[in-house]
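forwarding from the other thread:

> can someone predict this with adenosine monophosphate?

sure thing
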Amino acid sequence: MSFAELGLSDKVQQAVAAAGYTEPTPIQAQAIPHVLSRRDVLGIAQTGTGKTAAFTLPMLTLLESGRARARMPRTLILEPTRELAAQVEENFDRYGINHRLSVALLIGGVSFGDQDAKITRGVDVLIATPGRLLDHFERGKLLLTGVELLVIDEADRMLDMGFIPDIERIVKLVPFTRQTLFFSATMPPEIQRLADAFLHNPVKVEVARAASTASTITQRLVATGREDYEKRETLRELIRNATDLQNAIVFCNRKRDVAVLHRSLQKHGFAAAALHGDMDQHARMAALDSFRTGEMPPACGQRCGSPWTRYSGGQPCVQL
Ligand code: AMP
């Protein structure tokens, strides 16, 4: 199967080729023709399967006809987190290079003013987290009656995060005749109930879980003591003893643990940044950027370029 066989417009196909993709992923091959023929789609797929392009590519094609009106977005994409919403926006930037579409991002932690101005001018694609979307709606600056296509992405995460009442409210505000694309990695009964309520005669598209681990990743179980300080000590040893370690991501199961571990790593001289949902958007983006570029400031606050450095008392940084 090639991208040319899916029915995407020339402009979209050129952007896909420029992105370096040669073949559609299974979710793209299965979903795109149905989206283009205006069917509702229930997609059971998780992140990593290429599902974002499975809806952004046909949306770009569909949006080529018609134009946006002030305050009335033509399409709406709901995402559970600001980061996912920002990633979807990046997809529109990448695949929409040959289009002149207006895309707006409505996420918390960013000022209302710029977002309002964009909506007032008219947007083709509105990407939003549920709470911020409803805030805008309640301020009377946004009309959802022009939405032709609604995407509900990561529905099971929306459920975990308590967003379902917001989603149900939003769905009542968009036209009944809209096209709906609904994606979820899993289908617990509550999500199935929503899919039944929101979708009209949907095509069900299901893809296997994305390869659970890349073949280049080695998984290991490391024994450590029960106490948190013992775990932190083990972690420090792991980092220090690893050969060729450029950077690392450490997951914790609570925001409080992230804060404690972050402070501890910094205290021990590691260049570490924290990332969790209570941080403001600017700090979250800065943390992600510093990780991507490898320019995480060391604990001493100096940018010496080395990820694992210790700085003390005016002496030059030394490799740990
Ligand atoms: P997603 O599941 O949407 O988060 O996408 C996972 C990753 O796959 C992203 O980094 C995309 O850039 C990439 N991707 C999406 N579609 C394709 C494709 N057809 N071929 C190769 N990579 C792709």
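Residues 21, 23-25, 28, 47-53 surround adenosine monophosphate (CB under 6 Å). thats all i got for now
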